[in-house]
Amino acid sequence: MYVMVTTSTTTTTTMTFSRALPLLLASVSLVSAQLVPLVDKRFSYPDGIPYQVDTDDLVRGRQTGYNRCNSTTEGQSSLCQTSFINSIDDFCLWAPIEPNSIVGNVEGEMVAWCTKKGHGARQIPAEALQGVQFMKTPDYVQVVGFVDQSKINLQADDTGGEMDPHGADLRGNPLGGLLYSNAYGTDNKTFTQVIEWHNFIGSGFFCLKACDPAGPNAAHFCEHVYDRIGCQYNAPNAAQNGTFESCKGENQDFPGVYVQNGVTQTYRQPPESLGPIATIPYTARIPASSDCAPFQSADIYVTATTSSAATSAATTSGTGTRTGTTSPTQTGNNQAGNGASSLTGSMTMVWGVLFVGLFGYTL
User: Fold this and answer.
1) Which of 51, 183, 222, 289 is most buried by a 10 A CB count?
2) How many angstroms separate the Cα of 3 from the Cα of each of 11, 39, 240, 322?
């Protein structure tokens, strides 16, 4: 349990909790009886996807957008919340609906922004992506890179945070957000629902990892409890600003797991209530990449509905192996903020603890 520290604001915080507690407990009761966590929902693409996958109306309200997306929903006003990660020239990022937004304030309402048309979503504007590395490993596919985030409705200086299919209420950030990939199908026209994934964006950098749903360690490679330490630790990489490439790669270590003096250890992220994270006791190992095929930035912005440039890029010979990285540290957080929730930070912590008790999930 969390312990409140006695300060001059203790009384105010306690009163806020007291007033909201009946609502919280009522919501927990509803959740325990009715809620199906987003990670337990399965929808075949495309015919099995309903209009909205989240039909609950709990503390954070209803799902903002929709999941059944097609040519009629496509465009810069789209509210499509079904994303894809297929190749270096065919992937989507979660980003805000309205300009000048902050990740921590709108994580539950993010919509899909894609590199090309054909997904019924918004399109990432030309020149927004300034360097991209796509990597396929034995257990996941991952895309990381540099981005002018103001072009996809984020404040230019927002340090950002994380989107994933969990969240404190198990409904996902964004609420009802789905992710599909053709990396795990029999061909590039077969799309598999990715159950475990995470997407960080902020400080001009992004990373999106989609773990093989048939893999035994999908939940570990796509961990969701390190939302405050960004891409550098959740998706260590060798992306370079100005470089576009598609590579093979080895698996990273599980986020938070490292070896020190020959002993395997696990880092535990401190709660937001303790303030900014000043130090982290390890540097994440960057997985080796190989067979990197180079691309031009123009390759990312093809307008055809079917990817042709990078379908087999991960299997072509390229520029060899690299182990360095130029990705910046990202320290934004969003899980504690809980998106559109109106609860205070103290309430959110208690909300998370109650869900741990009910379902065994952590934030």
Assistant:
1) 222
2) 14, 30, 43, 45
